[in-house]
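The following block was generated as part of the benchmark described in Methods. Ligand: zinc ion.
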Amino acid sequence: MKFMGDYHMHTAYSDGRGTVEEMAAAARRRHLSAIGVAEHGPRSIGTGVKNEKSYLEIKAKLQALQPSFPDIHLLAGAEANVINPGGMLDITRDTIKRLDYLLVGLHPFVLPQGWKGWGWMLKNQAGKIFPSLDHRVRNANTKALKEAIYSYDVWAVSHPGLGMPIEIAELAKACQAKDTAWEINAGHCFPSCREVLEAARYGVEFVVNSDAHFPETVGDLSYGSWVLEKAGVPAERVRNAKMRAFKE
Ligand SMILES: [Zn+2]
Ligand SMILES: [Zn+2]
C-alpha cells in the first residue's frame, strides 16, 4: 500500500525538532501530495505548544509557504488532548474551527481539567501498578474519547490505546458512527496487527501517519502498509492510501 499524505507531525512549536518549512521540504523529497502539522495541545506537560496562538501562527506559515510547494497540500491541524472524562479538549472550539482538521488523542502526561480530570489521570497511573484496575481504566479512557468524538468534529483518533488502554470494539463503533478515522501510528509501530483486525471488524476507516518529530521521518509510513496488508485491510478503507483524496 502506498500513501499520498501524512497528517501527523510535530515541529519545534511543540516537541519536534524541525521548522514548518523543513517538514514541507521533507515531504517534497518523499513525493507526498499532502502533509498536516498537528502539534500537541497546550496541556501536554513539557511537550505541548506554548498556547493556542501557535496553531494560528503555524497555519499562517503554511499558507505563506504554499506557493513554494504547489504540489503539496499544506494543512494545519492539531493533536488535541482529552483533559477530563467528559471529553473536553485542551484547544478551544474557536481555534479548532480555524484549523483544517483535528486529531484527538490520549496522553498520560497531560494537565487534567477539574477534580474529575485528576481522578481519571490518577486512575491511569494506579492502573499501571495494579493490573486489577485495568478494566476500569480502559472503560474510563474509552468513555472519555467517545465523549470527545461525539462533541467535536474529530477527523482521526491518534494512536488509540498507546500509553493509555482502551476498549477497541467500543471505540471503533463510535469512530465508525462519527466518521472518525483510526490512526495507524507508523512512528510508534502501533497498533498491532491483532488490534487492527479487531478495529477493522467494526467498519472503521484508517489513516496512516508518521508522528514525525524530525524532518527525516516525515512520510515514513512503512509500518502502516505492512500492518494493513497483513490484516487484509483494503486501500478503500484507508483515508490516505494512494488513489483516495483528502477528506475533511
Ligand atoms: Zn500523540
Ligand atoms: Zn503526535
